[in-house]
């Protein structure tokens, strides 16, 4: 009998440490599926190659493709980390149900970082030409349209991406 299959579902605003954490799991053999990287591959950089107003329209098909990759990976016996913000509870619930239906275990990891620290991290990240630009207005829009998990079985991670506590 092999190790249990785990799908890590990451929740957090841009700059909160999701990708950094996902890459540590990837180094340990977990398949990392990044929605942002696949968006860049297909459409370019947010705010540079396509306008912010088109983001949600372009995002849907990419998320659907990543979901299919997740299903294929888990079905073939691989653990996965979904490197995506999962800002809405309904979206998180759908993934948890999907993962459970595939016979895997989910872990919901919430990366909580204050706005000032996020802005500092994003300022540094925005200088990298590989990434799109997430300015304070875009960050605030994402924050307003996101729902923090509460009582969903989430594990809370702070600025150093260390577990603070498990809720639920």
User: What is the name of the CATH architecture?
Assistant: 3-Layer(aba) Sandwich
Question: DSSP helix count?
Answer: 6
CATH level-4 homologous superfamily:
P-loop containing nucleotide triphosphate hydrolases
User: Roughly what fraction of the amino acids lie in strands?
Assistant: 15-25%
Number of structural domains: 1
Strand order of the largest sheet: 2-3-1-4-5-6
Helix content: 40-55%
Helix-strand string: EHEHHEHEHHEE
What name does CATH use for the topology? Answer: Rossmann fold
Structural Rg: 16 Å
Oligomeric state of the chains present here: single chain
Write the layout of secondary structure elements.
Layout: E1 6-12, H1 18-27, E2 31-34, H2 35-43, H3 55-75, E3 80-83, H4 89-101, E4 105-111, H5 115-126, H6 136-145, E5 154-157, E6 163-166
Parallel strand pairs: 1-3, 1-4, 2-3, 4-5
Antiparallel strand pairs: 5-6
Mind explaining what this structure looks like?
By secondary structure, this protein is of the alpha/beta class. It has a six-stranded mixed beta sheet with strand order 2-3-1-4-5-6, sandwiched between helices. Helix 2 packs across helix 3. The C terminus is likely disordered. The protein contains six helices and six strands. 45% of the residues lie in helices and 18% in strands. It has a single domain, classed as Rossmann fold. The longest helix has 21 residues.
């Amino acid at each position: 009998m092999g190790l249990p299959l785990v799908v890590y579902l990451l929740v957090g605003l841009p700059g909160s440490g999701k990708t950094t954490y996902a890459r540590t799991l990837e180094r340990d053999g977990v398949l990392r599926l990044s929605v942002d990287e696949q968006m860049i591959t297909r459409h370019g950089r947010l705010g540079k190659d396509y306008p912010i107003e088109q983001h949600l329209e372009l995002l849907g098909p990419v998320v659907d493709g990543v979901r299919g990759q997740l299903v294929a990976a888990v079905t073939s016996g691989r653990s996965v980390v979904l490197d995506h913000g999962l800002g809405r509870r309904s979206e998180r619930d759908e993934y948890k149900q999907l993962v459970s239906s595939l016979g895997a275990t989910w872990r919901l990891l919430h990366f909580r970082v204050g706005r000032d620290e996020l802005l500092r991290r994003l300022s540094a990240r925005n200088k990298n030409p590989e990434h799109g630009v997430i300015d304070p207005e875009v960050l605030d829009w994402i924050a307003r349209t996101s729902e923090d998990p509460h009582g969903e079985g989430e594990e809370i991670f702070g600025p150093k991406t260390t577990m603070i506590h498990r809720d639920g």
